[in-house]
Amino acid sequence: MKFLLPNKYKKIGKIITPLGFAVWISMQFGIHNKLLPFIFDNNSNSELHSNYINMTITIISFFSFLIGMYFITFSKERLEDEMVERTRLESFQFAALVQLVFIIIGFLSMLLYKEPHDSGLLLFFILIILLFWISFISHFYFVLHYKYKNEE
Questions:
Q1: Domain count for the chain
Q2: pTM above 0.85, yes or no
């Protein structure tokens, strides 16, 4: 691929991906309610600021998770050859197929069971994004590891 990042971005991605994911999940489960109340008073204005800060942290952590996955996905390997390029292309095709099957099954289940609420549909679309990148990364590194192991 023409537009790959240097290999050092992979290290950055390996740091911010789990960090962003952990903070995002902790914000979703409400752990922030236990950690941040000592900063604000009990008046309504501080509750508005608290909600604003919580939303900002949630958005930043989710996008840092996505950017970290982007860095891992689009960073060059130490040895970037034709086999790695072919494996990267095959992994993109595999991830697209997995995502397409998930979308079809998801919409069919929504049609058969009931119409989801707005939050359920938002969660479905977030899962579609995450499924693509996670399936690409896992397939790419599994195949790459398997091929390099068989060459030795």
A1: 2
A2: no
